[in-house]
Amino acid sequence: xxxxxxxxxxxxxxxxxxxxxxxxxxxxxxxxxxxxxxxxxxxxxxxxxxxxxxxxxxxxxxxxxxxxxxxxxxxxxxxxxxxxxxxxxxxxxxxxxxxxxxxxxxxxxxxxxxxxxxxxxxxxxxxxxxxxxxxxxxxxxxxxxxxxxxxxxxxxxxxxxxxxxxxxxxx
Length: 171
Prior knowledge:
Largest sheet: 5 strands, parallel
Structural class: alpha/beta
Number of domains: 1
Shape: globular
Radius of gyration: 15 Å
CATH architecture: 3-Layer(aba) Sandwich
Order of helices and strands: EHEHHHEHEHHHEH
Strand order of the largest sheet: 2-3-1-4-5
CATH superfamily: P-loop containing nucleotide triphosphate hydrolases
CATH class: Alpha Beta
Mean pLDDT: 92
Number of helices: 9
CATH topology: Rossmann fold
Helix content: 55-70%
Strand content: 5-15%
């Protein structure tokens, strides 16, 4: 059984949908950011401040490799922008981009002090980041789902893709 890697911009619903998807598929759910916090015993803002964003991206790449095998992994917003990490995800499972409109994402994250990129950037800069990353998410994912759909529809669509990918059912 392979893992499912959910990617998309901060606030797109990776963790929320991921929990439901894991339950539907009978897989373990892992929130990559939470996993990093627990493994490193540091908050993400502290890691960014002390070691920088590039170090955090290296941690994402390291831990994604540790988490392969029958899991649903909600990656961080920047995890699959790394081409090598995205290639690993494609080789070890199914990578799915949850394409949620910027305004929806922004309204979910705008007051979150645990997101260094949100705290340190204006809405305009975040919109630019969103646009730049959207192209990369499309390129680095195997499938894309509409993040504006209901949770149930998103979970059912990804579950169907997963079953097809794993050869258990037909679409």
